[in-house]
Design a protein that fits this description.
Elements lengths: L1 H9 L3 H15 L2 E5 L12 E6 L6 E9 L5 H4 L7 H16 L8 E8 L5 H14 L5 E6 L1 H11 L8 H12 L9 H13 L7 H28 L4 H20 L6 H29 L12 H29 L3 H24 L11 H14 L3 H21 L10 H9 L11 E2 L1 H11 L3 H14 L4 E6 L13 H4 L2 E4 L6 H21 L1 H4 L4 H10 L6 H4 L12
Parallel strand pairs: 3-4, 4-5, 6-7
Antiparallel strand pairs: 1-2, 2-3, 7-8
Helix pairs in contact: 1-6, 7-8, 8-10, 9-10, 9-11, 10-11, 10-22, 11-12, 11-13, 12-13, 12-14, 12-22, 13-14, 15-17, 15-18, 17-18, 17-20
Amino acid sequence: MKLVIREYLSMLKESGELDVLLPDLLLAMGIQPLSKAQVGVRQHGVDIAARGLDPDDGIDKLFLLTVKQGDLSRRNWDDESAQALRPSLNEILDVYLTQCIDEEYKNLSKKIIVCCNGDIKQNVERNWQGYKENNTKPQEVEFDFWGADKLALLIEEYFLDEYLFPEQSRKYLRKTIALADQNEQDPEYFYALIEETLFVKDIQIQNEAKLNKARSKILSTLNLSLNIVFHWCSEADNLKPALLCAERTVLRTWEWLGKNNLFRNNNIVNKFHQLFDTYLSVLRAFTNKLQPYCFVKDGLFGYVEAEEIEYPLRTFEVIGILGSLGIALWNLASDSQDENIQKSYEQEIKAIAQMIKALITNNPSAFTPRYDSHANDIVSGLIVLIVAESLDFAKCWIVKISSSIIRAYKLGRCFPIHTNSYNDLVAITVGEAPPKDKLTRASTILPMLADWYAILNLPNEYQEFQKNVNKTFAHTNFMLWFPDESTEDFLYSTNAGYKSGVSSSLPLHQSINDVRQRIFSLREDRKTVYKEISCINHGYFSLTAIASRHFGTPFIPLLWYQFLQEDNSDSPI
């Protein structure tokens, strides 16, 4: 495990990664961080200041950490660059110790620690030893070096201790890393690690303060484990397992918060925010990797034998991933009171919408959903397009999807099947499938599209859609799933559509105004149950979209019903 941690540390950047890990490590050591690294703020050599008992001698000290990336060598020991170590140490001695320490800490012994995710090279080791000897003042100022080896030991001792992270969990983590380059199956070992960490291991602590500290440490450990997997998957150039691990982590952690009544515990909720930030980091990395393929004609086409099947499956999966990121950012923007942060998220959402538009334009498979569950991916994409004010494109997309579905069914190929079975898709391709009416006995996509015709105010187009669908799919039961009081028990652990909720049969009304009235009525009737779902109630509605992508739970209609305007406006936002 030390080698795993050390390798992970070597992958970290100084800013935003290593300097984010260190405060959590200090807390785990019982040392309270007083300040953290800030971009663009002069810190006089000190990236992190903290106070606590030194585990080496048990003395209460002020810890001053300066953080560097990579190895400590002659090149970055004493040159003219801003990253040189010796000038930073001199500034700590000359400025920070004399002018920047609060009165209550001035009498404490000071421990200046150089932290890096590498080693001290031999060509600078004597320089470092000489500097320490010349500037150490017993009981006043001392120096230490925490390189990759030392940090690995500290992380294993204080984060991955046997009580909160038993050997079985370590095995799960190692097995997940060993399979980081594989996509044949889900990362089941990391899923088991999550269950072991959150739900199997019982914390036998009666003192509430100590109990909450242990729980906080559990989330820090889980976040560290997720980051290790993320960086390992990045090295393997395969982010799919990391994305699945991140989705499962935030969903299962949210259920854990609810089961332990922790939604009002600010410290632990902040740890969840950090986990969610890691999820966003994985999702952004995945999106950045996908970006070039979206802007190339047939960029998602893979040239494999089963491409008639795989191409649309891949296309809608990517739309769902991009949609998940857009909805998560929309959630954060809606929750923020800072206008600058809101604008930053809005710009990012617009960039994601541009990717979705380019992907759909360049890949005709985006008009031919093959599973009824692709309704989830379509809704995700539509929501991002609406939030980004790309209304005309959204209108064009649903009209083309509708006509493609009807045409495909008439041809007997490439239509969405309600079984969501890959074997059925293969059987259709080779002409050995059950009768097509049996594969379309139920549909979520078609009533969902009807709703969007109303939301986007397309009365003429809806008339054509309604006439063709009722004629072509007269045998089909149109239905949408709505959560009920028991959905909270399943939403974060499995496909809640199988375990809870109500599937309502919804005929396609002849008039678009009737569709509008149906939406208004359902929105009013179901809003109480909807708002009682914990992630809705506590401002994390994007978790419902993550649950839909990860477990296949049907998208909750009220999430898109909110876009329908009372005044029949052409703009849903």
